[in-house]
Amino acid sequence: MEMRDRTVFITGSTDGVGRYVATRLAIAGANVLVHGRDKMRAAALIEEIKGAGGREPVFYQADLSSLAETRKLAEAVLANHKRLDVFVSNAGIGSQNEGPGRQTSKDGHELRFAVNYLAGFLLARLLLPLLKASAPSRIVNVASLGQHPIDFDDVMITKNYSGSRAYAQSKLAQIMFTIDLAQELKGSDVTANSLHPATYMNTTMVRAGGVTPISTVEQGGQAILHLVSGDDVADESGLFFNGMNEARANPQAYDASARRRLRALSLELAGLEALR
């Protein structure tokens, strides 16, 4: 896909791999909508992109731990843009960010499930009419090889909590949603794919977990860009990639009944029951 003049919205794009992807796309001439919580980081990114000769991005500030703010973010994007060619759900928090203990979102949901999965779910659902109207278009969910099956009797992990389990569960939820969405979108010319960009990239999230990075942000960024613009995946949908290569996710991802349960729960939590 030629990216010049395409509109691409990337959550969590003022830092880490999202920042790299936003920069590369802006330099390629795309109209990039960057999102983050920190205005100073966003300002620095915009100046960096302009200095590199890239197209000046548009910044949207929102805290994705709040469904109300997430909804307002989608409303702002819809109000300000007549087309959306690519939505990259990249924002997330790791297993140790803000401490290893169990935390909750502003809506009372387990924090990693809320930020890594539920916010992206809500954004995708709200942005879908614009993505359909802009087809051919793409949805890219940045997930992980770290995946843990969802216990539907305790989705918010109130018992036996661990940050790594919460993170891995949220990432599997992203993949399950991607497969579910791809089936829903058949024939619409909107594709949805997910990926593990690279293992332990040199990002704030990885360093916060006390892990020594073993991959570069550039490696992960190239894998995301492949799904954003690669011609070889233009007609592929509902797939999970490990880097550049198609891979298999946790078996629960391919369990249609589990995906239906996750969809019903997600619509309820996001206040979208009418879409059931």
Task: Note the topology.
Layout (H helix, E strand, L loop, with lengths): L6 E4 L5 H12 L3 E6 L2 H13 L6 E4 L5 H14 L5 E4 L21 H23 L3 E6 L20 H22 L5 E7 L7 H5 L8 H13 L10 E3 L2 E3 L8 H14 L7
Parallel strand pairs: 1-2, 1-4, 2-3, 4-5, 5-6, 6-7
Antiparallel strand pairs: 7-8
Helix pairs in contact: 1-7, 3-4, 4-5, 5-8
The whole-angstrom Rg is 17 Å
Cα(first) to Cα(last) distance is 33 Å
**Main sheet summary:** 8 strands, mixed
**How do the strands of the widest beta sheet line up side by side?**
3-2-1-4-5-6-7-8
Helix-and-strand structural type: alpha/beta
Count up the helices: 8
| N-to-C series of helices and strands | EHEHEHEHEHEHHEEH
Could you report the average pLDDT, rounded to the nearest whole number? 95
Tell me the total number of β-strands: 8
Helix content percent band: 40-55%
- Overall outline: globular
Strand content: 5-15%
Q: Uncertain runs with pLDDT below 50, 5 residues or more?
A: none
